[in-house]
Design a protein that fits this description.
54 strands, 14-stranded mixed β-sheet, globular, 15-stranded parallel β-sheet
Length: 629
């Protein structure tokens, strides 16, 4: 009996080993393909990837070097990339349908030319990419030093450092066409299939002394999608006719990423329908959109995924949009040990997306639309997903969670969704539909965010999120929790968010009155501030050292803790809104504020503002805040 039992256990153990055995790791070294001698690495890498997939090779190894990638012979694929520009995207790394695969750059520099998406991962699983940097020879952002200004004429002159042209009174940034280096080789130019010049539009002023946007920056420039009249002066100098309140100071840097809806063409990494993707030790020095955009993915780890300026290159801007962005993902998102600097948008944004009801067809069907033009054709839901209806004004659910029976695409804007049960009386035109199946939990720790336009972390997910031991110094709000049915239609309410042990430096220095941490569901109007949107948000043991007054703005939270935080004013800048409250609590329940410290060196006082809708507020007996109900 003992012998039979032992043999049985041995058989099960061996079977388990075989089930977990992924096979031997086999490596293809790109040195064998002669990549070190290639003027254009793109076709060589594409061929190597095809070989790996065909022969089951599990690892692609690059010898350390500098490699240039051109789009001329790059494979393409139509990509509807949420929060970016859709279109045919050419790539040097078409990772489509790969499994258990690794790419190791061994510290190599990958330099891209023209409109490309360096890495496209679709329907791939267990992928690791590591030890490389990404940059562009010609950037997707125009930069020019302000060398003169005339406040009376409302003009300023810039010495443009990047490719550009002035035509019919307008300034354009010039992107690299696809034909180099083949023009010299073949003796003629290839036809450029896309628009390669973008009119200066969304713009911002940087301070080269701080390497950050200038203090009170909103007076000098804007992201209002308006073109600026320009005049060529010669020798690379261009005169700009400003439409803003003030002309920028001499010595600052004017930066523009071009026309709205045309300036998010080339993210560095596009992830779609993947599971278990790990990116280690990667530097994104520049990209013509986001550093990474992940959609409909499960389990993503970024460890040492840095969006940083390349030392000595003389540029001011890294990515022209977010450093990282996660939309309609699930599982666990981990971002750790990373630096995000000088982006023209946020460090990360983790959210779902509300589909907006365009028409109620019957008790079981609605036609829904993707409202924002940067969300055309995004994959909102598939059969089997769970969804609920959201009121267009209150942002509160009007239905229980229901299962999607079918989704029929009509075009890039409109689809028809069939519910598994009746929605009679629960839905109306312009209500939202929330996909509750595709939300991710997240761990965001040991990261640095600095010198960027916009925010640090945007977090909109009802799964558990931990934000711990990070350093923040962003031009706008550092952490924002929101949801809206007005523009971007980004969902969802936070449920169990811990913000702990972080350091907040000078934040919100762009000239607008906002808090360092902002929790603000975007209701149709103040009349609809009712119910609770998020719950269980803990902000504890953080250090705030910033020049202005406003630290926390919290609206419609059920269960809010602000404890053990150290607040100290800095003297970096003159306060812009010293009369703003330190903490502003609106329509919240079960609020605990205690054991915080406050030290002022610039005359700012600690103030707590609480509205009449807030209930169950608990303060410590020695509260440092002057209370204004």
């Amino acid at each position: 009996m003992f012998r039979k039992t032992f043999i049985g256990f041995l058989f099960l153990a061996l079977l388990s080993c075989f089930e977990n055995y992924a096979g031997p790791v086999t490596t293809l070294n790109m040195k064998e393909f002669g990549i070190e001698l290639a003027e254009d690495a793109t076709p060589i890498v594409v061929e190597a990837l095809e070989k790996c997939k065909k022969e089951g090779i599990t690892r692609l190894q690059f010898p350390k070097g500098i490699y240039h990638f051109y789009p001329t012979f790059a494979p393409d694929r139509y990509c509807a990339i949420t929060n970016n520009d859709n279109g045919l995207k050419r790539t040097a790394f078409p990772l489509w349908g790969f499994n258990d695969f690794e790419i190791d750059g061994d510290g190599s520099e990958f330099i891209f030319h023209g409109k490309m998406v360096p890495f496209i991962l679709e329907e791939s699983h267990n992928i690791t990419i590591q030890n490389l940097s990404i940059n562009w020879e010609v950037p997707f952002c125009l930069e020019g030093d302000v060398v003169a200004n005339n406040p009376g004429e409302h003009t300023f002159d810039i010495k443009v450092k990047t490719p550009h042209k002035v035509e019919n009174g307008h300034l354009y940034l010039c992107l690299e066409r696809e034909d180099s280096p083949y023009e010299k080789k073949y003796g003629f130019r290839f036809a450029a299939p896309e628009k390669y010049h973008q009119e200066v539009g969304q713009n911002i002023i940087f301070d080269p002394n701080t390497m950050a946007p200038v203090y009170d920056e909103s007076k000098y420039s804007g992201f209002n999608h308006t073109s600026l009249k320009a005049e060529e002066l010669g020798n690379g100098n261009v005169r700009i006719y400003s439409i803003y309140e003030k002309v920028p100071p001499v010595g600052t840097v004017f930066c523009s990423k071009g026309e709205y809806l045309f300036n998010r063409t080339s993210p560095a990494f596009r992830l779609f329908k993947n599971t278990n993707v790990t990116l280690n030790n990667i530097n994104v020095h520049h990209a013509g959109a986001m550093g990474l955009i992940a959609e409909r993915c499960e389990n993503i780890t970024l460890d040492g995924f840095n969006v940083v300026l390349k030392e000595g290159q003389g540029r001011m801007v890294t990515t022209t949009a977010d450093a990282t962005h996660f939309c309609n993902c699930k599982g666990l998102i981990t971002i750790k040990n990373s630096v995000f600097e000088n982006m023209l948008d946020d460090a990360t944004n983790i959210h779902g997306t509300y589909a907006r009801v365009n028409q109620v067809l019957d008790d079981y069907r609605v036609a829904f639309e993707t409202y924002h033009p940067h969300q055309n054709d995004y994959l909102f839901a598939e059969a089997g997903d769970s969804v609920q209806i959201i009121h267009k004004n209150t942002l509160q659910p009007t239905s229980e969670v229901m299962v999607v029976k079918k989704v029929d695409r009509i075009n890039e804007k409109i689809s028809i969704l069939t519910f598994g049960e009746s929605v009679k009386g629960k839905v109306d035109k312009y209500y939202g539909i929330e996909n509750v199946s595709w939300y991710a939990s997240a761990i965001l720790e040991n990261n640095i965010v600095r010198n960027n336009r916009a925010r640090s972390f945007l977090i909109s997910t009802p799964r558990k999120v931990v934000v711990k031991n990070n350093q923040f110094s962003s031009q706008m709000t550092s952490i924002r929790v929101t949801g809206d049915l007005g523009l971007w239609n980004e969902s969802g309410p936070c449920d169990s968010l811990i913000i702990e042990g972080n350091t907040f430096g000078d934040c919100v220095y762009n000239g607008r009155n906002a808090a360092v941490i902002k929790i603000d569901p975007q209701y149709a109007s103040e009349d609809y501030v009712q119910g609770k949107y998020s719950k269980d948000i803990i902000i504890k043991d953080n250090q705030f050292k910033t020049f202005d007054s406003y630290i926390l703005h919290a609206v419609s939270v059920d269960g809010l803790v602000f404890e053990g935080n150290k607040i100290e004013t800095s003297n970096s800048y003159k306060p812009l809104y010293p009369e703003s409250p330190t903490l502003n609590i609106v329509n919240c329940n079960d609020v605990s504020i205690g054991e915080n410290s406050f030290k002022s060196t610039n005359g700012i006082e600690s103030k707590l503002k609480v509205d009449k809708k807030t209930t169950n507020l608990v303060l410590d007996k020695k509260s440092l805040f002057k209370i204004n109900f």
